[in-house]
Amino acid sequence: MKTLGELIGRLRKEHRLSQQALAARYGMSRATISGIENNTIAEVGIRKVKAILNGFGYELTAVARPLERPTLDFLRKHPFHG
To answer: 33, exposed or middle or buried, with CB in 10 Å at 0-12, 13-18, 19+?
Structure first.
């Protein structure tokens, strides 16, 4: 969520929107927008984040990642892995 919050904050500022204006656009409180941007909100609905990102022309997607992280020994033996 930290990365998403930072992205939303950057996009909001690039579009010259206050937290209050962005909140009003999506029916949220300014405190919710602040919490999303600063990663201090305990829980936020994925629909809220998706709506904000869609409004800025972004799409929320999931990307597959390896189930296990490579060990340091593996990375030393295979330096171009990944």
So the answer is: buried
What is the domain range of residue 24?
A: 1-82
Q: Which residue has the tokens 């904050």?
A: 9
pLDDT digits (tens, 9 = 90+) for 3-27: 899 999 999 999 999 999 999 999 9
Q: State the residue for tokens 């990307």.
A: 63
Whichever domain contains 44, its CATH number is 1.10.260.40
pLDDT in tens, 35-76: 999 999 888 889 999 999 999 999 998 877 777 777 788 888
- How many domains are there within the chain? 1
Residue in the block written with tokens 């999303």: 36
Amino acid residing at 34: S
DSSP label at residue 41: -
Q: What is the DSSP letter of 26?
A: T
Q: Which residue has the tokens 């022309």?
A: 57
